[in-house]
Specification:
Elements (H helix, E strand, L loop, with lengths): L2 H31 L12 H7 L3 E2 L9 E2 L2 E5 L3 H4 L5 E7 L2 E11 L6 H7 L10 E3 L8 E8 L2 E13 L2 E7 L2 E6 L3 E2 L3 H10 L8 E10 L8 E11 L2 E6 L5 E2 L8
Parallel strand pairs: 1-12
Antiparallel strand pairs: 2-11, 3-10, 3-13, 4-5, 5-9, 6-7, 7-8, 8-9, 12-13, 13-14, 14-15
Pfam families: YycI
Protein name: YycH protein
Organism: Aneurinibacillus soli
């Protein structure tokens, strides 16, 4: 046997093996950076997974799994209610809601406190006490509120107050009536919802998770009765997703509903 030739072949074989293993490591790392599911490469613990993808968890993950329901709701008609209000020069329909513009800007004494703002607006906005301020979806010129049911936000039922500084120019509003509810079931843990988004590539390498909250959400269609499901709403650097609290499925947000 030509040992010199055999030795050369053996060295070349190990070199090719090293190159192949190096390629596998780099390829796996790049896939992880892209935030794509890793199958068996995903670490078992949440802490390891977040660290491996350099994802910052800026809020505590809620520990509770309350009993919630599917809600069956109907849009509220505004015609009779708007006639009782004053100072509104223009009212137009917007799908199943309304857009209102005031005769002139309203001066708000304490516009920075958005719950005080809501109390101030009670004479001008019907059902205003049914809403809760949503700081995560608000902006400098829009105070965003959502209707609530049993203290839980109905993310699909918003009210936006248009303002600049201490002046309020108008608002847009949707409101629903709760018709009935399904049987109560405990929702999945928030940890499971976050993991679902991580495993499916919605939260990517280097992002930050800024809010995890529970409430109700549904796609609003042109139908008499709408269905709202319990959801975990998760806000991160590049988006916002809703994970169904009963089935664990990711609710796909129609293009027009994206923030």
């Amino acid at each position: 046997m030509d040992w010199s030739k055999a030795k050369t072949i053996l060295i070349l074989t190990f070199l090719l093996l090293d190159l192949f293993l190096g390629y596998q490591i780099i390829h796996s790392y790049n896939r992880d950076r892209a935030g794509m599911p890793q199958g068996e490469l995903i670490p078992s613990s949440m802490e390891e997974l977040l660290q491996s993808r350099h994802i910052k968890l800026a809020v505590d993950i809620p520990a509770g799994t309350p009993e919630m329901y599917y809600l069956y709701v109907r849009f509220t008609g505004f015609t009779g209610h708007m006639a009782k209000l004053t100072g509104q020069s223009e009212t137009e329909s917007q799908g199943n809601g309304v857009i209102v513009t005031f005769d002139g800007p309203l001066l708000v004494p304490n516009s920075e406190d958005r719950m005080d703002l809501l109390k101030f607006m009670e004479p001008y906005i019907p059902f205003s006490s049914d809403y809760l301020y949503d700081t995560r979806s608000s902006s400098t010129y829009t105070a965003h509120y959502v209707q609530t049911y049993q203290r839980y936000p109905l993310f699909s039922v918003p009210m936006d107050i248009r303002m600049k500084g201490s002046r309020v120019f108008g608002y847009s509003q949707t409101h629903v009536q709760i018709i009935s509810q399904g049987n109560g079931r405990r929702v999945i843990p928030a940890l499971t919802a976050v993991r679902t988004l991580l495993d499916n590539g919605y939260i990517r390498y280097g992002e930050s998770i800024s809010d995890i909250s529970i409430g109700y959400y549904g796609h609003m269609y042109d139908a008499d009765i709408q269905v709202l499901a319990p959801v975990w709403r998760i806000i991160h650097t590049n988006g916002m997703q809703y994970v169904n609290g009963i089935t664990g499925a990711i609710e796909q947000i129609p293009v027009l509903e994206k923030k």
